[in-house]
Specification:
It is a single chain. The protein is α/β, with parallel strands linked by helices. It is globular. The structure holds ligand G3I. Ligand G3I binds next to loops.
Length: 364
């Protein structure tokens, strides 16, 4: 059993959303009572092997996103051979816990199986056929269970000053997809998805637009220019996902971020926070308690602005420090051997200040 936080006293929730006094509302219940959706990324291999992990996910999340099971390397490991089993594991878990699943990601330049990049170099006609086969096959398989997909992921080029600035000028990241199909590959993917499933919510997902820095401001400008261009060409698009991989070494200020989300909303687009987690600064606070309080403070300031800007769906990228790319990915892991404490739960699945502040945030 994990040492989660149980709400000892019944919460005073709006009458319409009263949770039975003896229940211990999870974040999913608290968020729903406020008209928000809370969820998280999950790993199918942990859902089936780690009971404490599975119980935590079941209790806290209304909406799941597969961390890797919805990507090309998992779904189409060989050309024209699809493997939906890992994704079905997530779908079965969600179904048995009354949870929804959002899809991630129909087109990305990472998590590409070995066969894909060389195949995309065969020419635009073949590249278009490969993209069409993937999108129509995946959407046919998931039509009954997934109603929102990140159709394109991380297509905006990183500006100078950001962690990994794009080597080229222009708004679009240089990827095998851009080289194979040209700048309108994004439109092609969105139109293929709409054609395959007319009522699917089509989401454009990206990162690095959150902080109050020159490069985040530049990336916001680039994203708005690309999205506005898509809409002006009549391209189907319903939402923009803001990943929310926050970095505490970067300042955050609500005003520019709220204005950015409101501009997207004025374009007729929904916005959602899709991959929230927090990277701590290089110099850590002197105690775990101080570190956790600082992480929670930074995250809640961001979420307050996100909701003020119109976001109504919030997903963290995992619930615990243990199963996080922030620990496993050398490029972002801490060099001092400590774990980033950027999630609501620690590596022993114990609730931290972030979880308590989220509960308060949802019951404001
Ligand atoms: O593919 C294997 C699978 O066969 C195996 O059964 C499974 C269980 O061990 O592992 C799978 O491997 C790794 C997978 O994570 C699960 O841990 C992949 O090798 C590894 O590449 C994959 O990394 C993920 C990465 O995206 C690439 O897909 C990270 O977990 C995931 O956190 C990261 O998430 C991305 C978002 O999709 C987009 N935004 C940035 C974010 C962080 O990079």
């Amino acid at each position: 059993m994990f040492a989660g936080i149980a709400c000892a006293m019944p919460l005073t929730l709006p009458a319409c959303a009263q949770v039975p006094a003896n229940a211990n509302p999870g974040l999913r219940d608290l968020a729903r009572a406020r008209g928000l959706t809370f969820g998280t990324a999950v790993r199918s291999n942990l859902l089936t092997t780690d009971a404490a992990y599975a119980a935590l996910i079941a209790r806290e999340a209304d909406l799941l996103v597969p961390e890797w099971e919805g990507k090309w390397e998992a779904l189409q490991p060989e050309r024209d051979r699809f493997d939906f089993e890992p994704l079905r594991t997530v779908l079965r878990f969600a179904s048995s816990n009354n949870q929804r699943v959002r899809g991630h990601a129909l087109l990305w330049h990472e998590a590409m199986p070995a066969w894909l990049a060389p195949a995309l170099r065969e020419g635009p006609a073949q590249a278009q056929q490969i993209l069409e086969t993937h999108i129509t096959t995946v959407l046919r398989e998931t039509r009954e269970s997934i109603r929102d997909w990140d159709v394109v992921n991380e297509v905006i080029a990183d500006p100078p000053g950001s962690d990994n600035p794009s080597p080229t000028e222009g708004d679009l990241r240089p990827t095998p997809w851009l080289r194979a199909l040209g700048p309108n590959y994004i439109e092609r993917a969105l139109r293929l998805a709409r054609q395959a499933d007319p009522t699917l919510r089509l989401t454009f997902n990206d990162y690095g637009v959150e902080s109050d820095t020159p490069w985040a401001a530049a990336k916001r400008t680039r994203l708005l220019r690309v999205v506005r261009g898509l809409l002006e060409r009549g391209c189907p698009l319903d939402a923009v996902g803001i990943q929310g991989h926050l970095q505490m070494r970067e300042p955050f200020r609500a005003e520019p971020f709220v204005a950015f989300l409101r501009t997207l909303r004025e374009m007729g687009l929904a916005t959602l926070i899709t991959e929230l987690d927090v990277r701590e600064p290089d110099i850590l606070a002197p105690s775990l308690e101080a570190r956790d309080a600082a992480v929670a403070e930074y995250a809640i300031a961001f979420l307050t602005a996100a909701v003020e800007g119109g976001a109504r769906t919030i997903l963290t990228w995992g619930l615990s420090d243990r199963d996080s790319w922030l620990v496993q990915e050398p490029g972002v892991a801490r060099r001092d051997g400590q774990f980033h404490r950027g999630h609501p739960y620690d590596s022993e699945l114990r609730a931290k200040a972030f979880r308590a502040r989220l509960a308060q945030f949802f019951t404001r």
